[in-house]
Amino acid sequence: MEVEESVRVVKNAAKTRKVPREEIMGMAAFSAIGRTWMLIFTAEKGLGKCRYFPITAIQRFDAAAKRIENGVYLGPLGFLTFEGPFSWKNKTLAFVFERLRIKLGPFDPFDISQY
Q1: Model pTM?
Q2: Nearest Cα to Cα of residue 103 among 77, 70, 64
């Protein structure tokens, strides 16, 4: 499956949450780094069971700066994000979070940094 087709399938899965797991697993769109990814589903070992994730969770990679950010977003209720450096070696992603941001309702985000 070409990357463009893979991206179309992933976007459709994110929008409808009804795309069968067989269409999602092993696509070329998953092999790129340096993008923003939205968690759509979780899979157990062996990919036997797959469930759609009930809230918006996004992971962003900045390959040039070697930084990663994970976030869970609850619309107007707020968000929780973690940010820090990452390394990618032998198909293993390692990261350390140095910054935590929490936002609740109309209040400004609360920022906790390691430094």
Answers
A1: 0.56
A2: 77
